[in-house]
Design brief:
single chain; alpha/beta; 4-stranded parallel β-sheet; 34% helix; 12% strand
Length: 420
Amino acid sequence: MRVLTFATAAASLALNVSGFIDDPRVVRWNTLSGKQTQLVGHRGEKAFMPEHTRASYWQAAVEGADYIEPDLGLTKDGHLVVNHNEWLSENTNVASISQLAHLRANKTWMDDGKLKTVTNDWFIADMTLEQIKMLRVNQAAYAWRPQHFNGMFDVLTFEEYLQIIRNVTIELGRPFGVIPELKSPLLYNRGRSYPRYFEDRAILTMRHYGWTKITKDIDTSQHADLHLAPLRPLNGTCLGPSAWQSFDQETAAYLSRHTSTPVVALNQNLPWFFTPKGLDRVSKYAQIVSPWKDFFVTGAEAYFTSQNITWNPKEIAQMGGFIAPDRLAKEIHKRGMSISPYTFYDSHQSMSYLCQKGVKPGSKSGFCPKDKSEEFFYFFGLGMDFMFVENIVEANVLRILYTNKLEQRRTSSDYSADQQ
């Protein structure tokens, strides 16, 4: 498989030059820390492997991702499992399993400030772990994505994901960050013994594996049935960093109050979020802000208009108005928060910017990316602290090229100063 062979070779290049990239003599990036942008493997490495599988996570690690992302759901019998959607038909063989046919249902719930309705599907919340483990994961049906591995992998538990990341950390001798997203807490907390059951279940699991500490009491009495596996010794290897993610702002605030782990506030549907006073509010609980990437290109007003999301103009004006796309990164950094936009796709796929569909870009420069190189260099230049990426090989190569560009610029400046 030529693509995978190239991937492995390019990953080796990326890892071999990592010492150069982190060399303090290299010019500062525009990130909050001054270090290079960190690459988050979106659902692992979904460009080549079925997403959220053992192989997807391992490949993300081999390709040099800095963080590897899982999405969390909660089964009927209280097990945390990894899957992007709350429903299962899009990326598993659930429809072909006759024993599960009776579980097909309709659901409506609040997600990222909007009501979401999914009909005639199977939902994680309605199934036991035993039923979930009957499923096999398939790759998305895009012509450019390898389909060779369909049906080979089961749906993982959150604990299995954390075991995998510990294993790749030990076996590759390099720390990898974990960055779980808690999907639709309002859905998964329905019918539970208390309103933060889902969140606390995740906190206790993360703590066991060494990626968080509890900073405020949680109700552990409700989780006596949570039996976690013994830990594999790290053998001197350090665990990587961690972060929580959620589109639910109340959940983000809860995780921030109750754990030592930084919180990523995801958002693309709440207009107030993209105002100066909105960012002030977010900065009280989030250390990282993660908007849809088009907020840095076309801008908030154009995006919300395209999605038929309404807002109160008077309220937005009182909160300082929508922040222009070419000012958004500076405003976030000014409040001490890092930035982690999503999602930067494989180059075979559309970049999905509104300006590519005829909407006028919102920045003064009128920038609209024509290819992945332009896109990445633009976001690197803005100072993105993290980026959710697919095809980590391409992203790593572009990061190396941008580093070289910064170094050449610095060298040229040093040379000109020497001549004066």
